[in-house]
Each structure stands twice: as C-alpha cells, then as structure tokens.
Amino acid sequence: QKEVEQDPGPLSVPEGAIVSLNCTYSNSAFQYFMWYRQYSRKGPELLMYTYSSGNKEDGRFTAQVDKSSKYISLFIRDSQPSDSATYLCAMSADTRGSTLGRLYFGRGTQLTVWP
Amino acid sequence: KAGVTQTPRYLIKTRGQQVTLSCSPISGHRSVSWYQQTPGQGLQFLFEYFSETQRNKGNFPGRFSGRQFSNSRSEMNVSTLELGDSALYLCASGGQGALGYTFGSGTRLTVV
Questions:
Q1: Which of B31, B41, B43 to mutate to test the interface with A (most CBs of A within 10 A)?
Q2: Parallel, antiparallel, or unpaired for β A19-25 and B53-57?
C-alpha cells in the first residue's frame, strides 16, 4: 500500500463547477499537508499549505485536513479553464529544523475545465 | 526574487552513459531536494541536502548520487544510464520561513 493514495482521474468539469480533489494516507505521523498544481512541461507549483487538521481558504481554493480519517481535500470554486492542470497532494512528517524534509506525493489528479 | 533554476532543460543520453544535472535554489535557501517524476510512478524522492550534508535518501540504486556546494547549488549524477531512468528530474528548494518547497521546471532526461 502506498503511503499516499490519490485518484488519478482524469476529471473533466464545465467552467464554473465546484471541483473536489482528495487524498488518503496511512502514516499518522504526517503533520504538514500541501497541494501542488502542475501544468504540462512545468514543475509543481505550491497552491495550499496546511499544518495539522482544519480548513484553509485562499481565494477560490479551500484545503481541508481531517487527521482522524487520514483524509485531505482541495475544493476549487467557480473553476476556470486556466485551472486545467494536474493536482498533486503532498505530505511531510519531518519536523527537523527549518525545512519539511522528505515529501510524500500522491500520483496526481488530471483536471480539465472546459468552457 | 529568482526562482529555482535547473539546467539543462532537456537531455538525451545513450544507455551506459552518465549524466550530471544541476540545480540552483532560491537565494538564501539551504535545502535542496531531488525528485524523479514518471507517468507510471509519479513523484519519487531521491535525496535531500541541507548545508552540504545529505539528510535523507530515497529508495534508488547507488547509481544515483548527489552533492551540494557551499553556495547551496546542487548536482545529481546518474551513472550507467538505463532506459528506465528516462524521466523528469525535479529539484525543490526550501528554507527557513518558507512554506512548502519551490520546484524548478525540471530536467527532462531521455535515455535511448
């Protein structure tokens, strides 16, 4: 069993739809949770960063972490064609010093938002 | 603020050869991590360097190695290339106060 599971999709939605992306994990030591967006031929770009359980909102994006269920979600409201990309969840347990240490990634969900 | 710079962007090598990839992190960042991305396996952790010391290593054979210089720039080396080493190699830069890691655009390596 992989430490982080993510449905690869693909997911195709019309413009304006609410998108829900999810990951589950098995390692209860994970404390830092991230969502990255990756466009074709580019490196991943950090979208959301959350520590421990709870919700975090940034514009049209909301990240939720439920540590009791080992489940994280990313919601995109009023989705736009420019949101079409692969979305990767990532997690870390490392609390060393000033960096996150190793990140554990999901496989990524490919999202297409059509006009 | 300049981002993470990876060179070269594209590389084609022959089986059995070796290759060196370079990464310049964001100014002031002392952590550099390397990941391999393939369609089949997704992003897999190779190693992490912090202040010239390897702090963490993934599950890759010894053909994969890396180092970090005093200016935080990092290189990774793959010796005796195999067809299965064809992938996008990503470098991630991290530093104190930074949330998450910042990735470069990657080096796409093709082994023929």
A1: B43
A2: unpaired
